[in-house]
What does this fold into?
Amino acid sequence: MRTQIGIIGAGPAGLFLSHLLHRIGIDCVVLENRSRHDIENTIRAGVLEHWLIDLMNEMGLGERMMREGRPDTGITMQFLGQRHHLDFEELTGKKITVYAQHEVLKDLVAARLAQGGPLLFSVSNVAIADVETDKPRITFNDAEGAPQVLDCDFIVGCDGFHGPSRQAIPQSARQELDMHYPWGWLGILAEAPRSWHELVYSNHERGFALLSTRSPMTQRIYLQCDPHDSLDAWSDDRIWAEMQERFAFPGWELFEGKIFQKSIVGLRSFVCQTMQHGRLFIAGDAAHIVPPTGAKGLNLSVADVVMLSRGLDDWYKKGSKDRLDSYTETCLTRIWKYERFSWYMTTLFHRNDAETAFERRIHLADLDYVCSSKAAATALAEIYVGLPIG
Ligand code: APR
Ligand code: PHB
It folds into this structure.
């Protein structure tokens, strides 16, 4: 098999890249080791930045998102028992859309298959070779187990944090920086009606809580917990009691319902300071991770592949290497702003047991500042709605 661009991974980065390349007439093949059913049913975050909404519409991928997604003009911040609306639309002129990542993936997969793919699910043993030459290759076993070779002009690793692509960059050529937080998120999906018209980020004595939604009758709620907690320690009754406390607000009711999904994830930040090596590029979670507060993972992954598609366009149409050569630098400039934002949102809203009484007062002053100063609120809003993609 031969293609121009071999893409490993059919998450947001890989699927968006395949669409962006198709749009500019560049061939690609996407190789994914999970099944279509699996990738379409893995629960992740669900906030889309304003430019991504425009991009999806421009690419003809936004029809269901426009129908089923919820355009939000802002968020609610809760602390010391009070609620404050941060009006992004007033502060920035822009909105966000709440639409789940797996729904985006369903739309991208269906559209890609309708265009004829190729999008190969359930492959195995993906390995990258010869990226330092101008004939890089991917070897893999197809869904039937037959060995295959994909000859490419370039390989793009969109295979998430645990995929093989980043590891294919020699250790001496990459620098990895990370940070672990002492906090986890217990995430649940519940069959319950919406309790509030927008996302609620609550900083509470008992720990952070986030009220989000998936559809009018399915709610997504997170609670700060110990990252080493076992799900067994979190009965449905304990979860609802904890949520009732952390979101408590006079005259308001948190609607309860059947919890049908629970998970616990630890929070971390990670950046690989090199995103290319020879003819291999990495994008999205393969290159960086943000903690989930602010829901930047998907948005950041798509921004990477937008930059990369521009570089590949210049390479094929103009014979120019400049944009490909500066891919890492262009992406990292944006990535570090988002790393800062996600770290800030995380530290702003989580309860930190290691804080001194003094630091706790500074922390509360920061929350109060964002809710009382237009300048401070705008600084948060500007990145929440998404920095322009340029
Ligand atoms: N071979 C083929 N595919 C692989 C391999 C492999 N060896 N390893 C991983 N993959 C696939 C995964 O199964 C997954 O579908 O690569 C895809 C990577 O997708 P994501 O992890 O979603 O990464 P990305 O596209 O960068 O999107 C990041 O998605 O995971 C969320 O929170 C994350 O919002 C962030 C966004
Ligand atoms: C989500 O809906 O999953 C979500 C929303 C906002 C966040 C994080 C996650 O900040």
Notes: DSSP finds twelve helices and 20 strands in the chain. The chain has a mean pLDDT of 97. The pocket of P-hydroxybenzoic acid (ligand 2) is lined by residues 45-47, 199, 210, 212, 220, 292-295 (CB under 6 Å).
